[in-house]
Design brief:
By secondary structure, this protein is of the alpha/beta class. The chain has one domain: Uracil-DNA Glycosylase, subunit E, CATH 3.40.470. The protein is 44% helix and 11% strand. The protein is built from 11 helices and 6 strands. It has helices at 4-17, 64-73, 78-86, 93-96, 120-125, 132-143, 169-186, 196-203, 209-212, 234-239, 244-270, and strands spanning 103-105, 111-115, 152-155, 190-194, 217-221, 224-231. Strands 1-3-2-4-6-5 form a 6-stranded mixed sheet, with helices on both faces. Strand 5 (217-221) and strand 6 (224-231) form a beta hairpin. Helix 2 (64-73) runs parallel beside helix 7 (169-186). The longest helix has 27 residues, at 244-270. The chain is globular.
Amino acid sequence: MPSAPDSLSALAWLVEAGADEAMGDAPADRFAVRAPVQAPKAAVPPVAKAPATQKPADPIETDSIGTAIALARGANSLAELKAALQGFDGCALKKSATNTVFADGNPAHRIMFIGEAPGRDEDKQGLPFVGRAGKLLDKMMAAIHLDRTTAYITNVINWRPPDNRDPSPEEAAMCLPFLRRHIELVNPGVMILLGAVAVRHVMGRSDGIMKTRGKWLDYNVNGRMVPVMPTLHPAYLLRQPAHKKLAWRDLQMIEQKILSLHLLERNAAEG
């Protein structure tokens, strides 16, 4: 058997001599008719399976704010508004709340206090300002000769936010149509906004309660401008009792405004 170097030398000689293909041991008839070469069959793409039939999604309310506006506009009395609010399911807060907190007091005297949202005690009883902050509000009203028979109390939000957190803008937006209609139906002569949340959602101002408190603002109700006084929320005063002196100044201004409005109404009746 030739060695590897000899085999390589022979192969090199054959290449130089012009050999360009290797020959087998058996003779090959190069003039025989060859069978046609068939092209490989094209791969058949797999048939896509039809997707499984999906269960249609449950219908959901896509315009809860629009629904709230329609319900609020359709209420022609406070009783109808309360019923509409209790039947409204567009605000997620209602699912975790015990009660819908509508209002308390006497709307006939047209002195309207508006707070932020119910707390734990309010959620249990279904009335605004009945906990510690409510007891302080009662004292604040008593200081200017008011109580729940001569004033009317409600909130921006009608259901307790979990853990007493601040209501989200979306939650407030669901409640605002009812609050605006609430104000229209009460037709107040004076409005007192308790805390920054009430000022932000009623007046559209985010200056902070320390900048807005103690200054009269105006709110359009049924085509007339109603005086509005922002002041400190009773819950804030429980945490910061040193600021009660600021709230007392606001209360004195509120009392003077109420007296002057009563005087104007009496003069108009006599004139």
